[in-house]
Amino acid sequence: MPGIGIVVVSHSAKIAEGVVELARQMAPTTTLIAAGGADDGSIGTSFDKISAALSRASQDGGAVVLCDLGSAILTSETAVDFLDDAEQARIVIADAPLVEGTVAAAVAAETGGDLGRVAAAASSATGVADVHADERDLRGGDAVERSAVIVNSSGLHARPAAELVTHASSFQAEITVNGVDAKSLLRIMGLNVGVGSTIAIMATGPDAEAAVDDLVSLIEGGFGEKG
């Protein structure tokens, strides 16, 4: 199935590479390309690097671009302007923080999101959300509810959080964990729950019961981690 690629544009090659390295821990099969630094390796941006990255990242289903500072956005926009109309339609430059936006976009791409969903995931990293709004949305429906205890010693850190989001995204159901959207990596990571914590899972929709059963099994199985 065609996938969405992610391009990380930074004035620093090391920053771009580091962000890609971090995101790849949670999205190992997604195309993630760093386009950092000027052509001579100094601090800056490179039209040629960005253009090459766009070509590689968008060859399947399109690409989402994340940038650090204003001139990185301008250079990226210029690179997109040089593409033909069909290619331009497959590129989105996200208005999102570089690190959080890249991680959120990468997880959305890893779980099969289309261009719109991946771009929206990146943008969702901007601002502070009402973490209880998601659960209120489910309360009016015929919700399935269960609890589970975190047993892996590292708790719900980045990798387990990404795995939980991947599982949740595979079901046709609206799902919350401790009141936040189970399909949003940033909200799940923001729960900051450790070993021994009891968390509440709630779901509505066609796959609600199967989704809750799957997440309880995933959590109580320690996300495949030892201890």
Automatic annotation (TrEMBL):
GO-annotated biological processes: glycerol catabolic process; phosphoenolpyruvate-dependent sugar phosphotransferase system
Domain HPr: start-end pairs: 143-226
SUPFAM superfamilies assigned to the protein according to its UniProt record, in alphabetical order: HPr-like (SSF55594), PTS system fructose IIA component-like (SSF53062)
Principal EC category: transferase
EC number(s) per entry: 2.7.1.121
Swiss-Prot/TrEMBL catalytic activity: dihydroxyacetone + phosphoenolpyruvate = dihydroxyacetone phosphate + pyruvate
Name by which UniProt lists this protein: Phosphocarrier protein HPr
Organism name: Frigoribacterium faeni
Upper taxonomic lineage: Bacteria, Bacillati, Actinomycetota, Actinomycetes, Micrococcales
